[in-house]
């Protein structure tokens, strides 16, 4: 494993971080035994940064239970304050206590304000977040403080200027170079000496699972044989400003592949041809993606039951793959309660979207694309065939 020293904190972190959002599951629950094996394998292979959050169901408890078996001091734990649910200083304190308890630890190495926006930054200050951070830092229960971010570059710079942060976590991958804080934000934060942690390196799996056909052909025909995930990770680690790439590994083969690449990759090592390949992949994606939804689900729940990320994913799938399967899947999974046409334009979802998507108008497009006059009839036929 290769390590990078974070200027601001002095820690040597593995360039591969373990994202604890998607543990393997069995019968709808976290598969504890498999998760434990995976986490121990990652530690044995040198991974020393584990990223969880209060909001990931069962994640902190599971990680805490595993690390308590003699691994706590070998790794850095990162977790997050769910500021979207915090309205008082008391709630802040209680939530932090719960996190320490769940993680079976007395301190958090990298603590973040989760999904910070500029308005939320102001709100959290008004209810005492600064004294919370300072007190916990003094007590040694928060070692380093940062924030995770999905907003625009202007507010990103403002937030950085207004506090002495130790690190930031940004959404970044080859599709997001000029999106959200993007490349400019990455370079700006790095210039201040902050640790740069990258989330969504594969854009919620889109870079591997929803590769346009032409992009797949470009990868298959390239002189060096690598998977789409490997190209995406190598592109990130090629960047000297990137410190840790958090990968949500849920399969044994993901860990094996990611560790192999993290052992081998070098900064500024992509050749001109390799960079050109990635530029071409970006172009293919741009041709096909209709809506830049990352399926984070922050817009949910919708009072009318609309499954917004699923609706956008279906529209993107239809645009990329152009097959009937997408329409059939959309019909089966949304009819009748969570269809896009159930939207009454109440507007509750849009302010919650970190990607600032025009959700209501985009849902209209989903509606007109999938829910034509034959929608209900087709749906009944499909369901009758599938569930007879
Ligand atoms: S605007 Fe539509 S999709 Fe959004 S919360 Fe309201 S009903 Fe649901
Ligand atoms: S619409 Fe926005 S908030 Fe909802 S899942 Fe997509 S990106 Fe996330």
Automatic annotation (TrEMBL):
Give the record's keywords alphabetically.
Oxidoreductase
Q: Which InterPro entries match?
A: 4Fe4S_Fe-S-bd, 4Fe4S_Fe_S_CS, AKR, AKR2_Oxidoreductase, NAD(P)_OxRdtase_dom_sf, NADP_OxRdtase_dom
Q: Return the broad EC class.
A: oxidoreductase
Q: Which domain of life is it from?
A: Archaea
Q: What is its EC number?
A: 1.1.1.-
The record, for Gene3D superfamilies, names: NADP-dependent oxidoreductase domain
This chain belongs to the protein called L-glyceraldehyde 3-phosphate reductase
């Amino acid at each position: 494993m290769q390590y990078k020293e974070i200027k601001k904190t002095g820690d040597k972190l593995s360039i591969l971080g373990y994202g604890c959002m998607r543990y393997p599951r069995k019968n709808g629950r976290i598969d504890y035994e498999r998760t434990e094996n995976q986490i121990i394998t990652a530690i044995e292979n040198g991974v020393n940064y584990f990223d969880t959050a209060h909001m990931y169901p069962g994640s902190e408890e599971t990680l805490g239970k595993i690390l308590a078996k003699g691994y706590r001091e070998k790794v850095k734990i990162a977790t997050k304050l769910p500021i979207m649910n915090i309205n008082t200083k008391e709630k802040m304190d209680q939530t932090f206590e719960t996190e320490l308890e769940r993680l079976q630890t007395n301190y958090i190495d990298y603590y973040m304000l989760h999904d910070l926006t500029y308005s939320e930054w102001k709100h959290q200050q008004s209810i005492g977040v600064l004294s919370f951070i300072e007190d916990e830092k003094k007590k040694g229960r928060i070692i380093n403080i940062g924030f995770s971010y999905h907003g625009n570059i202007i507010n990103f710079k403002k937030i950085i200027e207004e506090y002495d942060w130790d690190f930031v976590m940004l959404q970044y991958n080859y599709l997001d170079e000029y999106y959200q804080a993007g490349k400019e934000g990455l370079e700006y934060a790095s210039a201040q000496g902050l640790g740069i942690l990258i989330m969504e390196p594969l854009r919620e799996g889109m870079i591997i699972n929803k590769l346009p056909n032409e992009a797949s052909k470009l990868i298959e025909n390239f002189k060096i044989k690598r998977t789409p995930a490997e190209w995406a990770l190598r592109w990130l680690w090629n960047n000297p400003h990137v410190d840790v790439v958090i990968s949500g590994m849920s399969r044994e083969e993901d860990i094996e592949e990611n560790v192999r690449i993290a052992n081998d990759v070098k900064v500024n090592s992509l050749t001109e041809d390799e960079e050109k390949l990635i530029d071409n992949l970006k172009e293919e994606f741009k041709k096909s993606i209709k809506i830049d939804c990352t399926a984070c689900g922050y817009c949910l729940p919708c009072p009318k039951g609309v499954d917004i990320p699923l609706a956008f994913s279906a529209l993107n799938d239809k645009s990329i793959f152009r097959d009937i399967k997408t329409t059939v899947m959309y019909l089966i999974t949304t009819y009748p309660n969570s269809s896009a046409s159930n939207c009454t334009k109440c507007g509750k979802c849009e302010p919650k979207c970190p990607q600032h998507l025009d959700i209501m108008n985009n849902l209209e497009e989903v509606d007109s694309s999938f829910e034509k006059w034959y929608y209900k009839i087709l749906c009944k036929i499909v369901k009758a065939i599938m569930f007879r």
